[in-house]
Amino acid sequence: MFLPFHKDDTAMDTAIMIWNRFISHTGLFQNIKSDRDPNFTSALWTNPHNLFVTKLSLSTAYHFQTDGLAERMIQTLEDMIRRFCAYGLEFKDSDGFTHDWCTLIPALELAYKTSIHSSTGKTPEMLEKGWNSRLPYDTLKKDLVDIHPTASSLEIILDKERHHANRCMQDSFKYA
């Protein structure tokens, strides 16, 4: 889960953010994998971990005894935000309010969770929930053929090529 924290956030701010954005929606977790941020190692977190039998796994980058998963995810998120900020991308809503990278955290999280990872060949969402969310792109891609005539002719060509490839495979089995 990607949450927009600030450097001056306290452990209480962190706990409230996690409650509002995670626990209230999905329930308690069995394990929190985190870097060694003081907000997660403070006494505020020690008591709830003991009370709710939740394990806090602290990872360290480039350390052979930990997998560095939290650091890797943070690095990926920072890269995503950096690419967004490099172009100075900001957008204004209908009221003229300018939004920055913090408002895009949910969209960046969705992009991360629905992207196929090379290490597993699956999306994190598929591994976590057993299915992938239906995205706006999924509803649009089936209509693209109807929108543009080139897309329609390309779909016809692809169907013909699939049929031709299947015939070639059948012929190769027949004459093998």
Computed Rg? 23 Å
Measured by DSSP, the beta-strand proportion falls in 5-15%
The number of E-state strands comes to 4
Structural class by SSE content: mainly alpha
Instruction: Give a quick account of the main beta sheet: strands, pairing sense, barrel closure.
Output: 2 strands, parallel
**Estimated helix fraction:** 55-70%
Task: Tell me the number of helical segments per DSSP (H or I, 4 or more residues long).
Answer: 9
CATH topology of the largest domain, by name, is Nucleotidyltransferase, domain 5
By CATH, the architecture of the largest domain is named: 2-Layer Sandwich
Count of the domains? 2
Strand order of the largest sheet: 1-2
CATH class of the largest domain: Alpha Beta
Poorly predicted runs of 5 or more residues: none
Tell me the distance between the termini: 53 Å
| Nearest-integer average pLDDT | 71
Order of SSEs: HEHHEHEEHHHHH
What overall form do the CA principal axes indicate? extended
- CATH H-level superfamily title of the largest domain: Ribonuclease H-like superfamily/Ribonuclease H
Organism: Austropuccinia psidii MF-1
GO molecular function: RNA binding
Protein name: Integrase catalytic domain-containing protein
Domain Integrase catalytic: 1-132
